[in-house]
Structures are given as structure tokens and as C-alpha cells.
Amino acid sequence: MKKILLLIISLLMVISISQPANAKKKIKVAFALLWTIDDMGWTTAAYNGIKYLKEKMGDQVEISYTEKVLAADAERVFRKYARQGYDIIFGTTFEHMDPMLMVAQDFPKVVFEHCAGYKTAPNMGNYFARMYQADYLAGYMAGLMGYKHVGTVATNPIPEPIRGVNAFTLGLIKGLKKGKHSFNPNKVNTVVWLKAWRDPINETTLAETLISRGCILIRQMADTPDSSLAACKKGVPAIGYGADAAKYGASCTLVSTLWNWGPFFVKVVKEVQAGTWKPTPYWAGFEQNMIKLSSFNASVPKSVQKKVLKELEKFKNGEDNVFVGPIYDQSGKLRVKPGEKLTDKELLTMRWLVKGIVGNIPD
After folding, report:
1. CA–CA dist 62, 57 (Å, integer)
2. What are phi and psi of 68, to 5 degrees?
3. SS3 at position 179
4. In 3-state terms, what secondary structure has residue 180?
5. Helix, strand or coil, per DSSP, at residue 352
């Protein structure tokens, strides 16, 4: 018996010694996704981030996700994951904010992260990406190429899309000026609103309507590539949004502006592992690799690509001058004085359109 006992003790010692001193507990991570992972837009981008997390963290994480989590079902999904012992739960759309806050209060040891919202709690942070930076670059590219009659199929008339429309237009005007193209400063970007995040039928209809009105480039802003696809069918180039529209058949797409959530997901997991996570709002752009541009279409001149990428490098280095004045609104009112810059609070509550846009903000 003594020999057996000594053998057991020896084996336990060997096992203990063989375990790395810094062995980390596997982190259980759950995601509530707005739609299906193959929606070719918003949820596909989130799923790409999940795949990136799995690739980078490997067996350090256990990942689960639920698709089609609309606001009415969000609380149930969050509670289910919390009760199952998940360490981190991500809500990936604005409508998840209030249900997540309710659940977070009942599970103080679980880390919650919410996308696109503004509320926080001791165990709930929020995150978003400065997509307006990529919008600006896409507009700059279009302007350099001489596209002075753009049609934008926008989504919901809230600050995020409004900010994107404005940034695109400011970049467009800068490109037109730098390319020495003549243009009407009051009419370079005609905007129509879906009043939805995705509506393939109306996306197609609105894109076709804009083309019939003389628009020579379509800017997609919805969560599906249908307005880009509609443009291609009409022989008009497009600019994609969220995911790479060219990969879904829109071969006329000059470039797409992309969400890149993976690096942030990894950041949160590593912070939770290290015990350094804090519930702070996180809003970053190119400097933190939260957004990207797709590859350029072969029709985009190399000289234009070079100029766009030079501007992108400025963003990567922390230089963000998209909303530096002078900036005028549609009525000609000076909104941003020369040399001044809009604050994040002003950007996050933006409810006005810059000079050069045709169309209004609907109620």
C-alpha cells in the first residue's frame, strides 16, 4: 500500500510540474447576432470577427453564438448564456443595449460588451468603430476619379449613418477639388433613405431610381449588397459597405468599407484573462484596426489608390481631420469654424447634413 501511495504522490507531482505556471483558464465567450452569419453584411462581419477570435486564441476560448437575436428575444438569450457560465457575452447591435443592461445587473461576475450603444455598467462596456473614416476615404477615391453625381442608398436616419453620409461627401468634395474636376458644390451626393438596416427589394428599387435620375455611382450603406448589385446590372459602378460587395457578385464595386471586429474581440478576451478589463466606451478606427478597405477594383487607377492609401496611413497614425472646419451645412450655415474640430459627443449626436448633399433627414 505504501508503494502504491508513493506512486500516486509521484504521479501527482509530475502532473503538477508539467502544468505551465501561467496556465490560463479557458474563457467562455458568447455572441448574440442580429441576423444570420451569411447575411452578406452586418452579421457576416461580426461572424468574421468570431472566426478571427477563434483563429488567434485557439483552445484558450470556447465560443458559442445565436443567430437572429432581435430585441424581443435578446434578454432571454443573454440570460441563457449567463446561467450557462459564460465569462463574456457580446451583444452585436444597438437594440441589444437595454436587454443586456438588465441582465448585466443580475450577473455581476459576467463581462458584457455591447456594440453601437452608449450605456455602461460596472460589468458592461460598449464598443463601436469609426466607420466614417472609411466612408471619407471611399468618397475621396470617388472624387479623385471624377464622380460628381453620386447616389447614396442610406439606412436609418440616425447619427451613425448621417455621420457616414457627411464624411463620404466631405471626402468626395476633397477628391473632386484635388483632381481638378468641375462640379456643383451644392449637388454632389443625392441621398435617399430606406428607414431600415436591410431591405433588399427597396435597396434595389432606390438604386435604380437614383441611376434613372442621373447618378453615375451608387454608394451602398445597407447591410446587404443589393444596391451595389442593382448598380452593376445597370452598368454603373458602386461602393460597398460592411462586407466586401465584390465577393457577393457586385463586380462593379470600386471598393468596400469593412467592419473589422476581430481585433477588438481578442482584446477583450485577453483583458479578461489578465484581469485588466474595464467597462469603458471604446470607439476606434484605422489606428486600432477596427475598420478596413477592401481591395480596389482594377478600374481604380494606381495613382488614385496611392493617394487614398496615403490618407489611410494618416488615420493609422492617429490623425483624424475628417470633421475639421470650415464645414457648412446644406443651408449654407457655418457648422464648424475654420481650424476647429467636432467633438466625439457632437459626432455621436449628429443630426444635420453637409453642403453638397441633396436630400433631407426624414422624421
Report:
1. 10
2. 55, 50
3. coil
4. coil
5. coil
The residue ranges of the chain whose pLDDT is under 50 are: 1-22
Cell of residue 230, nine digits: 442593382
Rounded to whole angstroms, the Cα distance separating 108 from 105 reads 6
Percent of the chain with pLDDT over 70: 93
Alpha-carbon distances of 103 from 78, 97, 113, 360, rounded to whole Å? 7, 10, 12, 38
Show the cell assigned to 107: 450577473
Which grid coordinates belong to 195? 428607414
Cα–Cα distance for residue pair 154/196, rounded to 1 Å: 9
pTM of the model: 0.91
Helix ranges, 179-317 (H)? 200-212, 226-233, 262-274, 302-316
Neighbours of 185 (CB within 10 A): 12
CA atoms of 189 and 264, how far apart (whole Å): 33
> Which of 43, 23, 22, 27 minimizes the C-alpha distance to 267?
27
Using an 8 Å Cβ cutoff, are 205 and 224 in contact?
Answer: no
